Amino acid sequence: TSQWITGPDARADVHRRLRAELVSTALEGAAGAREALSRLGLSGQRVGVVAASPAPAASGSPRADQQLLAERERFTDALAVHLSAVQPGAAVALIGDTAYGILPAPDDDAGARLVRVAEDFLERVGERMPALIAVGPPADDIAGIAQSRATALRVLRVLRERPGTRRAARMADVQTASLMLELRDLVQTRGEGPTGPIERLVAYDRDHDAHLVATLRAWLEQFGDVTAAAEATFVHPNTFR
Questions:
Q1: Residue 82 contacts residue 101 (beta carbons within 8 Å)
Q2: Rounded Cα–Cα distance for residues 75 and 98 (Å)
Q3: Which residues lie across from 51 on neighbouring strands?
Q4: Which of 2, 31, 90, 154 could form an S-S bond across to 103 if both were Cys, CB 3.0 to 4.6 Å?
Q5: Whole-angstrom Cα distance, residue 101 to residue 145?
Q6: Hey, which residues does 93 pair with through a beta bridge?
């Protein structure tokens, strides 16, 4: 039993838990954050935060949950290796269902550079480890790190809810979409619904089983390009018009 407890797998699990606790404490910006950064070797440095969503939600069965956790841990380990190779000193840990990284970001171009690093990683792992990666702005202090994490999570939400060609991004890449999602949240919180022409389109779709709202959305997303919008909705351009 003692051999099992002190075996490689057990030591790896202990290391993961310790790293996750330190990274989580540093990201929260609460008491102990400064000490956590020091133990991670990142104290006194300008750092960047990345947040990665490495796998779909679990099915709910214990076996599936266990397999999903193992896949997320493998993803996190691979991300740690990649980030550490590109930027020595990176601290990466799985916290809940999100993999976080804190790494030195000394220059003003750090945000854009981290996006390129994330894209390179996703290209390397391919479909074996499908994921989305968000990059927060560089931070100079404890409060900035917490803010960088919050920003990264906002970016990650856009990547999840607005799937498209991007799998890695920073706020500068998705700010409009992020603001639109927050505006939608505000409207829903107030209990407001569509008004004016949009309200009439929604009512028509509901009463006639039509697709006018979806058509309008496709047209707007393609910036008024009817041919591209028709292709996206799998209809003939004349039908679309």
A1: no
A2: 10
A3: 100, 134
A4: 90
A5: 11
A6: 100
Q: 168-170 and 132-135: which strand pairing?
A: parallel
Q: Are 18 and 127 in contact (CB under 8 A)?
A: no
Helices (H), 109-236: 110-125, 142-161, 171-190, 196-208, 212-221, 226-232
What is the radius of gyration, based on Cα positions, of the chain? 22
> How many angstroms separate the CA atoms of 76 and 99, rounded?
6
- The overall longest dimension of the chain from CA atoms, in Å, is 73
Instruction: Please report, in tens digits, the pLDDT of each residue of the chain (241 residues total).
Output: 444 445 556 777 788 899 999 999 999 988 899 999 999 999 989 999 999 998 665 556 777 778 888 889 999 999 999 999 988 999 999 999 999 999 998 887 888 999 999 999 999 988 888 899 999 999 999 999 999 999 999 999 999 988 777 899 999 999 999 999 999 999 989 998 888 999 999 999 999 999 999 999 999 989 999 999 999 999 999 999 9
Query: What is the three-class DSSP state of 7?
Result: coil
Instruction: Tell me the pairing of strands 132-135 and 47-53.
Output: antiparallel
What tokens were used for 222? 């393609």
Instruction: Residue 83: name the closest of 115, 108, 118 by CA.
Output: 118
CA angle centred on 158, ends 153 and 163, rounded to 5°:
135
Instruction: Give 34: exposed, middle or buried? Use CB within 10 Å, 0-12, 13-18, 19+.
Output: middle
